[in-house]
Amino acid sequence: MLILQMKRKWFDMVCSGAKKEVYRDVTPYWDARIRRYGYAGLNFWVRIKSGCQKDAPYADLIVEKTVGFGRPEWGAPADRKVYILQIIDILEVK
Question: Which of 82, 19, 88, 81 is nearest to 50 (CA)?
Fold first, then answer.
């Protein structure tokens, strides 16, 4: 399972359904982590967490990976391509 940390603002937007994508930079670090789970054309499971604490709120999502320019109003940089993890389904929020 891929676990992604994010700021509370973005976490709340994802959980409410207002934000439909999660972004990560296209770097060797994220290449290795995302390729391990995100095969082309296949959906996969990720957990997003708001904070690093053991009891931090989290949500389990089904996402699909693409690469491109995301939406700056949802936190994507405007000047470079990123991994776009498009949210297909929210399985659980705790």
Answer: 19
The tokens for 2 are: 């891929």
Sketch out the chain's domains with CATH numbers. Answer: 2-93 (2.30.130)
15 three-class SS = helix
Q: What is the pTM of this model?
A: 0.90
Note the maximum CA span of the chain.
35
| Whether residue 38 has pLDDT greater than 80 | no
How many CA atoms does the CB half-sphere of 62 hold within 13 Å? 7
Q: Is 37 helix (H, G, I), strand (E, B) or coil?
A: coil
